[in-house]
Amino acid sequence: MKKLIHLTINDQSFEVAVEPNQTLVDLLRYQLGLTGTKKGCEMGDCGSCTVILDGKAVNSCLVLAIQADGRNIQTIEGLETAEGLHPVQEAFVEKGAIQCGFCSSGMILSAKNLLDQTPNPSDTQIRRALSGNLCRCTGYQKIIEAVQSAKTI
Amino acid sequence: MLLPKFDFHEPKTVNEACQILAEYGAKARILAGGTDLMVNMKKKILSPQQLVSISRIPELKNLEASADHIRIGACFTVADLCESDAIQRHLSALAEGAKNLGTPLIRNLATIGGNIGSARPAADLPPPLMAYGAQAVLSSLSGERTVPLDQFFLGPGFTAMKPDEILTEIQVPALPASSGAGYINIGVRKAQDCNLVNVASFIALDAGGIIQNARIVMGCVGPIPLRARSAEKILIGQKPDTALFTRAGAAAGSDSTPIDDFRGTAAYKKDMVGVLTRRTLDIAFHKATHRQ
Ligand SMILES: Cc1cc2nc3c(=O)[nH]c(=O)nc-3n(C[C@H](O)[C@H](O)[C@H](O)COP(=O)(O)OP(=O)(O)OC[C@H]3O[C@@H](n4cnc5c(N)ncnc54)[C@H](O)[C@@H]3O)c2cc1C
Ligand code: FES
Ligand code: FES
User: Fold this and answer.
1) Looking at this predicted complex, what is its ipTM?
2) Which residues pair with B70 in a beta bridge?
3) What is the mean pLDDT of residues B169-196?
4) Rounded to the nearest 10 degrees, what angle do helices B92-99 and B266-290 cross at?
5) Which candidate, B87, B83, B289, places its Cα nearest to that of B180?
6) Does A143 touch chain B (CB under 8 A)?
7) What is this structure's pTM?
8) pLDDT digits 0-9 by tens, B61-82
9) Closest CA of chain B from A41, distance in Å
């Protein structure tokens, strides 16, 4: 039976009816049209479904939509402001850290989550923070460089 | 990938959760961080009809360090374990296990209770917890009972918990003065990898520097995390040194019962048990002699 939930996504309030067995990533993509969040493995391995849930980056394929009731979610769509792209997004473009782009939403959110908590991370901290996000195009070095350059902004 | 259908419950207190479990018994499953259960449900290995989420029960998220115990709530996340000063200070081997579990995204969801409840032979937290002599506190409508983690695991995915019980907290007894523990896990890769072998060692020294108590726990080399009993016997009553730790390592290797699989051969895993036992004993000895 569907249940009504209330949640905040990218600073906007939503009221939606969800099935108990619906995942958060499916709610975002199929019901709300927020397709910036990707689905790769659906098993917690790849990180392409990364969202920031109450300030913490998580795999949205392992969270039920119903568990997000009353909670605050940030997706890739919420990073751009009137002033333009988020500094991490800008850095990914500048440093050529995007190839096919499938991993980029997740990579950028994991990087943003790191920089929010640790404004000046070491190389090891950056690599550790991105270790749950796989890039099938294997452009890891440029991704690390992008985060390094974003931290200095 | 579709999840099987189920009814969803979100109790606000432990008592309410126990009532739901009492009503549905084996048809119900507890959902904590979901990083194990969601995967098993997507693969259709498990299809519980009733899912009882315990993430909105505030009392399960507490951490309490008193003179005689450290009590960790079942819903304390692995990320919280990594960041907690109290865990780092008192239970550094557990902090080490937490830092090596999964990925940052997984650690933000995964709970200590789920790591124990899933009863995977390769899990990162049971060896350090068992080395510290931890106990699981289980609650049901008929009351509360305490089970030493040593007796908690029965086989892969099987534990001493009854279907109507909920694991509410992990209790670790306060450590004696000159004691310490170490934990090391190795895998095929450095991040996001199922362990090949993981070992935790604990030693306590008496005033004369003699080993009074020792616990060595080996993961991935049996259906449950195993104590290396003959290695522990070699250590107790002796003065710690490298030769002794090497002998204990060799004994631990013989105590282990690994299988050949794609991660490595049984012979290699036995050898690695020996190496990790020696190294974790070195760490434990260093902690025991340098801890304030
Ligand atoms: C990509 C990936 C990587 C991983 N890497 C690792 C790793 O390196 N090391 C490792 O050890 N694990 C790893 N895991 C497994 C998993 O993340 C951990 O075991 C985690 O700690 C499980 O906790 P959870 O809260 O998500 O459990 P859940 O999935 O919510 O629950 C797991 C099981 O325990 C039961 N349970 C949970 N809480 C309780 C409770 N309080 N009382 C009674 N029963 C309970 C549930 O019913 C279920 O059967 C990984 C998983 C994924 C998807
Ligand atoms: S789709 Fe969620 S981790 Fe791969
Ligand atoms: S850019 Fe293609 S997966 Fe990373």
Assistant:
1) 0.97
2) B65, B172
3) 92
4) 140
5) B289
6) no
7) 0.97
8) 999 999 899 999 999 999 999 9
9) 9
Q: Is the CB of B106 under 6 A from ligand 1?
A: yes
Class (C level, CATH) for B61-173: alpha beta
Token pair of A104 as six digits: 């980029």
CATH of A87-151, one of 1.10.10.10, 1.10.150.120, 1.10.1740.10, 1.10.3470.10: 1.10.150.120
**What mean pLDDT, rounded, does chain B reach?**
96
Structure tokens at A134: 């796989």
CATH 3.30.43.10 corresponds to the domain B7-53: yes
Residue B74 CA, closest ligand 1 atom number: 41
Residue with tokens 């902004």: A153
Interface test mutation site (partner A, options B103, B107, B118, B189, max chain A beta carbons within 10 A):
B103
Please give the share of chain B, as a percent, with pLDDT higher than 90: 94
Tokens for B260, please give them. Answer: 């050949």
- What are A152's two structure tokens? 């200095």
- Band of the pLDDT at B262, cuts 50, 70, 90? confident
| A143: its two tokens | 């991704």
Q: Looking at the predicted structure, is the pLDDT value of residue B189 above 70?
A: yes
A69 within 8 A of A15, measured Cβ to Cβ: no
Task: Report pLDDT for A153.
Answer: 63
Query: Is 3.40.30.10 the CATH classification of the domain at B179-290?
Result: no
Q: What angle do CA B282, B287, B288 make, to 5 degrees?
A: 95
DSSP 8-state symbol, B3: P
Q: Kindly indicate the confidence band of residue A93, based on its pLDDT and cuts at 50, 70 and 90.
A: very high
Question: What is the pLDDT, as a whole number, of residue B100?
Answer: 96
